[in-house]
Amino acid sequence: MAIVKLNNKAVSNATAFGSISSLGSMTFIKKLTASGSATLSFVDGASGVVLDDTYKEYYFTLNNIHPSANGSLLAMNLSIDSGSNYNVAKTTTFFYALNAENDSYAAIAYAAGDDLAQGTGFQPIAPIGYGNDECGSAYMSLFNPSSTTFVKHFLINSSSLQDAGDMYERNNYAAGYANTTSAVNAVQFKMLSGNIDLGDICLYGIA
After folding, report:
1. Could you tell me the pTM of the whole model?
2. What domains can be seen in the chain, in order of their start residue?
């Protein structure tokens, strides 16, 4: 591995840098696969899920999520009581870029209807069509969910095929914080109408 110089100054008198093999590494924790599922939930301590102070960051990959209802919103929420309730207050932002399949329309816009201002409902991730070839995929980072000092930040980036008369590719960005100093110990994903017919969601811990 090459050593990068900082400010054109060479590293000198260095005897050891220590092991860096584990820094920033992803550790696979759990995969949930949808099959007409109303929800997919990751609850700390249940079915091999780890969502505690083992890692300071948790990373979700949502792969080829296919809904049962056209134009439904894929969404997520958080829990501080091991999944008994998914109703943590959140303040978020949501914007997107889109382009029509026939190149008839393109836009970048803020989606005021998809953000929350201390709302406890599910945070939208992406609108997804239900045609046989339509789906959506996303990444979500959740930072230090077990902290009992700070609020809990999250970032979500998704790509989805939306059927709204014309076919649109949408790149969606949601971000925000869960306004709680209690540990977040469960995360749930669902469509806001209908079910998740197909797709999988994987959880990783970031060292």
Report:
1. 0.88
2. 26-206 (2.60.120)
